[in-house]
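Course assignment 3, question 2. Fill in each field.
Student: A.L.
Task: Predict the tertiary structure for the chain below.
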Amino acid sequence: MDNFQTVVDQLADLPSTPVVVQKLHMLIQDDAVGSRDVARIVETDSALVARVLKLVNSPFYGMTQSVLSVEDAIAILGFNTLHQLVLSTAVFDTLAVDNSTLNMAAFWQHSFGVGVFAKHLSSNANKDSQSEALTGGILHDIGRLVIAKCDPSKFVTFYFKRKSVTGIEQEMEFFERDHQQIGEMLARKWNFPAPITAVISNHHTPSAAPDEYKKLVAAVNIADLLCHMMQVGYSATSYVTEFDPEAWRCLGLSMDKLKDRIHAALNEIDKASQMLESL
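Answer field:
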């Protein structure tokens, strides 16, 4: 079957990680780096600056006063959160497709929703881990975007013209790889952080995740399940992952705590809805 080879050939032609993201990734490895240094790199891409500031000033982040510069955003959010915000924004910009192939607004809403749910399911963790959960959730389905970008006609045929289930087993049959594996190829090509790559490549199969990332991947797995059940956005399929008891146990939450986290996540998504529509 040619379907996977077509995606691979087109994937090779996708651009490298946006230069801003490459430079930012390298810079934040330096413990001596300052916020001005980081801001100077982000500010080389005016469109990216505009979108980042729009996100930071949205109700989602709950700022009490307007954030007018990237340097202020870094001071408030921290290097890691800003880095992951820039990464998510750049990825969606690079992989955007025509709405005749995929409703990008609905896809972004689902991805963002999974990120918010994953963050709340990880709310016992430290701030960096919650930030990773948010970013991992936002980027978990980029494999589907890669397929849509590289071969839109086959994407539409598989996801919208077939009447059968469109789960990962069926993706394997049609494309010879599932969207987790295709997403992992891009994550490695673009040198994503290891925790985010683990989420992309294992969010439907959390038991296969490396031990150090099992809790993070479990949070995104359960978050994805919840978003599909509650119809938060649309990721090109209504397929709901089979509930994974081990992923649930890994989170260590009671049902009462889960209800609280769901309520908080839905409130946060509702607050951000206007922002999502404008992106």
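Instructor remarks: The chain is about 70% helix and 0% strand. The two ends are 37 Å apart (CA to CA).
Grade: pending
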